[in-house]
Amino acid sequence: MKIKTFVIGLTLCSGYAAASVAPSGKQLMEIIPQPAQLCVSCHGVEGQGVEPLGPRLAGLSKQYISTQLQHFQAGVRQNATMMPMAMTLQGDGIEQVANYFSAKPANEVKPVIRGEQVVFNDDTARLAYQGDWSRGLPACVTCHGPSGLGGGLFPRLAGQQASYIKTQLLAWQSGTRKGDVDGMMANVANKLTAAEVDALANYFANLK
Asked: Where is heme c 2 bound in this sequence (predicted)?
């Protein structure tokens, strides 16, 4: 029994290629909707993400996941890996993927910390919780919710990979990511310095 369980676990974690291998295919279909099977190799079976391949999806709202997949399909949001992946989702595929991952719990994050502890200066916390109105910067939590928990069209930031948060802020700055309401995120990102991007990405990644 232990051997059988271990084999199934390997099949789930190996992604799309293993999803078609008998005899575990039927069991896999019962656990993960078929449209979502392509996603697990980069985002994990439980949506906890596989750095650096894919960010955490657990804890994101169904609305947010659906919207982003639609943006990838339309080319509004650009990513060499995600755009073709999103195009495979036809019919109710987007809905099935969004339902599956949004239902996964956002487990407590235990980041790998090198050294004694991660220390953030007051300026980083101030940007996160108060913003900087002298530069027209609203607090991050204004849209992303208390403690960065997100909701609706605004993604959860708490516990997300720091590398992913940074990549997305840089994408807003460069204009390769779009689709935000009234250009809000592009406006915010373009007012952040490189040091602030790094600091905020690490700050939210370490929030439990």
From this structure: 140, 143-144, 185
